[in-house]
Amino acid sequence: MTRLTRSLPMVAFAAVLIYLFIPVIATLLYSLATSWNKTILPEGLTLQWFGELFRDTRFIQAFGRSLLLSSAATIAAVVVIVPATFAISLYAPKLERWVQTLVMLTYAVPGVIMAVGLIRAYSGKGFSMIIIVFGAYVIGMLPFMYQGTRNSLRAVQAGSLMEAAELLGASRMKAFIRVIVPNIMPGILVSALLSFSILFGEFVLINILVGGRFETMQLYLYAKLNTSGHIASAITVTYFILMAILSAWIVKLTGRTSKPNKEPSAAVAEAAIPTTKAMMSKEAS
Amino acid sequence: MKRFNSMLYITVIPLFIFVALFMFVPLFTMISGSFQPDGGGAFTLTQYTEIFTNPYYLKAFENSILISLLSSLIGIAAAVFATYAITRFPKHIQERVLVITNLTSNFAGIPLAFAFIVLLGNSGLFTLLFRQFGIDMSAAFDLYSWSGLTVIYVYFQLPLAIMLLYPMYYAIQDNWKEAASLLGASPFQFWRRIGLPILLPGIAGTFSILFANAMGAYASAYALTGSNYNLVPVRIGALVSGDIFARPELGSALGVLLGLTLLAAMLVNEWLTRKVRRDLL
Amino acid sequence: MSYVQMNQVSKAFQEQKVLDSIDMQIKKGELVTLLGPSGCGKSTLLRILSGLTALDSGTIHIDDKDVTPIEPKDREIGMVFQSYALFPNLTVTDNIAFGLEMKKIPRDDIRRAVGEMIELTGLQGKERAFPRELSGGQQQRVALARSLVTKPKVLLLDEPLSALDAQIRKNLQQQLRSIQRELNMTTVLVTHDQEEAMAVSDHIYIMNAGHIAQHGAPHDIYTQPRNEFVARFIGSYNVWSAEALGRIAPQVEHIGSKLYAIRPETFCAQPLEGGLAVTGTVSSVTMLGNITRMELNVQGQHVVVDQIHRASDWANVGDSTTVYLHPKDVIPLHDATA
């Protein structure tokens, strides 16, 4: 009994780790395999599939579209959400409760429901549906940008910084841009990177609202699923490597910003970061 | 005297416009559309009566709720123990494990479905491997069936559950464990009397997030078989985007009911938590 | 034979020695305080005694029994943590009853014992409250009741009052001491507050950098510090080198020590019979409640003088003034190092 209760967590952990990794490793091997049909390990290794993929202009274009759409939406989300979060948390704390409810709402509403609403509201009325998807992306990032900004503002004690800057003669706008923004920059960057990585993997809205007319990487992958397994693996691996680079960047940023104070409270704040990340990756939908 | 705060207005109004255009307007049109007949028109409940009388749509709800409950249960059960194991590692290893777990959370939707096709599809690696040994796996397991979809759902629930539970284990102070052990409690007794009751609201909250996550999941099922799985999100997608069979009003009504299901799940969860944890009242 | 005995206890964390061959004896029913600045190893020593932290070498005996290899839960030790460590999901009653339930005591006996404890600690009316509904002082008393109810052989208190306001802290010190006397409970208190240590202890161990700097009854420690660390830590003593003493007060006989300690309040404004005069320039005057603290510069040596505050005007900054000192109040420090 006691031996069971003691070893159960480790068994569960090992099982989860294996479960999470086998598909990743299989996809990686498949993307590098010459042929892999009848043996435990691939018969040979090759970069042929990646070569083919990167020579395919359709892939390059899809990659470019994803990059463009995700970064544009991320930048817009930063510009729209960060200053508003700042102003509300400092000058209109009464609004915070409503904003929190809004944040919960944007988080809880599944992409497919948003898709229905957006189609009914804007489809066939002369709007470019890509712009509509863009707008939905910006609002979809509200929970993560809002939470990230608020945490950063609290960490740098934005209220006192603003008061100090204003007493020294800076206008509010100037104080915000010269004092607050540089101080919360690492936090904004982390939120932006997280937003970008989640938008890059978005499928539901773009598929239902736009479809093949604006082929992003996810749509391209979907189109390739049933044609070539090796090419599809190469796309998946490319996507995964991009995500790994973004994660590494985020880890580096959060590590650097949280090092000076090794208080327990800082550890709690750190722990909140993977949580936010986890909340974003709702089925990448 | 209060200064007129131009900064507040300059910053909040754009955000409000975005929220109105891309949150409230679509939600409102969806709700109002759900009360219209096909092609639009006067107020009617026909879309709802159709859903509640058509076994096909009722089945979609049943399927969605079942697979969401099942995948969330498996996910949370595994994650509760696995996360506990993670918290027992040295700090720097914990961080690494979390980053890696986090990374796999990007493996969702289309790429995830694809990875499982590579492993367990009709000509997947494991399928062929088992065939080599003379075992026909398709008799016991078919990726394109409900069991296959559950395997995929559990996959994307696991990293999410671990990331959400991990900080909650840090709310369990080491001092409580020490105090309990000095008072004669075994680790098992500690977890049963103190640890689990304290974690419970967090576990319940995580469960409801997992449930909502699965209820709204669209990409994985869509990637596996297009619109063949009879799940609510897949039905909605087909109803609003199909060119010939598009019935956006019916899709809207399904959307409203899906939203209500999530809301109900959240409320039940909160109510249960408060019943169990009197000290939180 | 002492009730608790620690022999040659050593502990290192990652090559860093935190405790170096500590010996300690505690008599039954005694309240012993481990006093020292933060990082001196006092909390580690307490945790080693409880068994929560393993020792590297040495032995611990409680009630003539070697408990060194025994698990914390079987050592019959009660402990109050600095954070109290109350279980947030249990009521006051359930928190106190927890240890008895683990021992499978009959329900009626538990109810009676818990009731007695609630009365002893003055928690009547709070039986059904949850920890977060209590004030800091009340939480502290629940923690105390919870660790006493199992009738442990030794009670350990890890800075139990440090999170409380000064006023509540004074009250709880008294209460703690009277409960401890009433139950004749062998108790080890860890604190960094020397006033608190002086107020409640039968015996004080002063620790510094993993060593015991001095131990003894509060009065002995206060009047006879053995080294510079204790002199400075316990009573803001003036510590002079032999050379400085010779310069300022050549009349005092050299006893051969390198350092000498003089308590600030032993200086006197009026000439003493057989006393020696110390003249210097006033560099600051500070009011400390009923005491006036004057700092003098005596031939380059910084001297602190405390006097009961009187209305009569004292010297101003920059004045030259003379105070008097009895040679018997110059205490030679034996150990040059801590």
UniProtKB/TrEMBL annotation, chain A:
Membrane topology, as annotated: Multi-pass membrane protein
Stored Pfam families: BPD_transp_1 (PF00528)
Cellular compartments annotated: Cell inner membrane; Cell membrane
Bilayer-crossing regions: 12-33, 67-92, 98-119, 126-146, 188-210, 231-251
Keywords: Cell inner membrane, Cell membrane, Membrane, Transmembrane, Transmembrane helix, Transport
ABC transmembrane type-1 domain span: 63-250
SUPFAM superfamilies: MetI-like (SSF161098)
Family according to the record: Belongs to the binding-protein-dependent transport system permease family.
Protein name as it appears in the record: ABC transporter permease subunit
Native organism: Paenibacillus profundus
From TrEMBL, chain B:
Domain of life: Bacteria
Residue ranges the record marks as coiled coil: none
UniProt entry tagged with the keyword Transport: yes
Keyword 4Fe-4S (UniProt): no
Membrane-topology descriptor: Multi-pass membrane protein
InterPro entries: MetI-like (IPR000515), MetI-like_sf (IPR035906)
Main location class: membrane
Signal sequence bounds: none
Localization per record: Cell membrane
Membrane-spanning segments: 7-28, 65-86, 107-130, 150-172, 198-224, 250-268
Domain ABC transmembrane type-1 positions: 61-269
Keywords, alphabetical: Cell membrane, Membrane, Transmembrane, Transmembrane helix, Transport
Assigned protein family: Belongs to the binding-protein-dependent transport system permease family. CysTW subfamily.
Protein name: ABC transporter permease subunit
Organism: Paenibacillus profundus
TrEMBL record, chain C:
Domain of life: Bacteria
Domain ABC transporter: 4-234
Gene3D superfamilies: 2.40.50.100, P-loop containing nucleotide triphosphate hydrolases
InterPro entries associated with the record: AAA+_ATPase, ABC_SmlMolc_Importer, ABC_transporter-like_ATP-bd, ABC_transporter-like_CS, Mo/tungstate-bd_C_term_dom, P-loop_NTPase, Transp-assoc_OB_typ2
Pfam families (alphabetical): ABC_tran, TOBE_2
Keywords of this entry: ATP-binding, Nucleotide-binding, Transport
Molecular function per GO: ATP binding
Protein name per UniProt: ABC transporter ATP-binding protein
